[in-house]
Amino acid sequence: MSNSDDRKQRVILQNIARRAMIERGLDPDYAPAALAELAGIRGPAVRTAAAARDLRSLLWCSIDNDDSRDLDQLTVAEAMPGGAVKLLVAIAEVAAVVRQGSALDGHARQNTTSVYTAGGNFPMLPEKLSTDLTSLVFQSERVAIVVEMVFGKDGSLSRSDVYEALVRNQAKLAYNSVAAWLEGGGPVPSAIGAVAGLDANIRLQHRTAEKLRELRHMRGALSLQTIQARAVFLGDILQDLQPDQSNVAKSLIEELMVAANGVIARFLTATRFPSIRRVVRTPTRWDRIVELAAESGTALPGKPDGIALEQFLLAAKERDPAHFPDLSLCVIKLLGRGEYVVELPGESVAGHFGLAVKDYAHSTAPNRRFPDLLIQRLLKAAMAGSRPPYANGELAQLAQHCTEQEDAAKKVERQVVKSAGAMLLAPRIGQTFEAMVTGSADKGTWVRLLHPPVEGRLDKGFEGREVGDRIRVQLVHTDVERGYIDFVAAG
Predict the structure, then answer these.
(1) Does pTM top 0.90 for this prediction?
(2) Are 474 and 344 found together in one domain?
């Protein structure tokens, strides 16, 4: 690439992302009617009689990515007698601002999700809302949906409640710095040190989340780890693609959100309201998972068994951590995709096999996901004693649409990462790299570089290569627009 092209690298990736979105039925731009509605929105959701509880004094904090501004959740904990812990999750109030049937709702309904690409983000809701008026922003008072949970000393849920309240974010925290502190590898983040008692509160949240995680994994929740590349820019110039690593702070939030999502799902069931559930069905390709385990010398039961699969995954990770992300990816593909389905009163749908939970509804990210906004509207109607705001047939159609659009968004994100990888490697044609075979089939053999973590096709020297093999490869071709990266074996 020329120096002129270098200066346009971010723009090139943005344009690739826009084209990919349009090709897959996603709108990268808001319609004029939506922008006109947006201009008329002056402030966040106002406090009503339903949100009479004032919880602004609690030590609420957000923990998210370093650059996140669309803050959907706050958390806080309180120690109780006998070793019990009260945990509260506040969820951003979006439904009161984005009205059902509005033009803004129409855009959210079409895309159903924010799309996060290496070339830039395409938020489901305009940033004036998602990063400000409907975000739980630092030091701002906001109306929120609060999920209150009390866990016993052993981590079991003893009681729960859902209500509206007024909250205030006392500290905006980032995953990486919180994780380094909790793991003993970094100092107390300044935002934590600035709020008296917050350090102890987050440690209490962390201990409780660890208990919840332990219980889920005892029931068969799966320890899966994949490599997701994150683009690193200096200005508009792409500098690197780095793996986005999991850590204890991300695990903390994941556990509390899984618990809160379960409470909301059961609340809707108890009030005989329909809901949209997030499910991963019992795998139909369990026989191939059994074969995969057998290749490593592990015998799995003939019928799907989450506990046995989790034990195999843990042993595999300990035995060969370098190959574990590739094994995880294989298992994820064999488990099948997640999907949204409608659960009607009196009915029961499949649970989430990977999380080992039965009642699970995406509800904690209404700025980023349309199913969560749908659930929030259903929840508010249930709390108010009103009729469901959607007919059952419409909910079924929306559930299928959300599944399809989420799949489309993931394909866009993967495509742009491939283009970013091709862009990063373009000046390095002819160089050799350490790689690992990640796919071997009739349609081709694929390898992933150890760094940067990008995948490409092995055009020559693939004979006899198996998934998991280490190999040295030479880069021979890249195509940024199409996201193609081609290698040959280098001895």
Answers:
(1) yes
(2) no
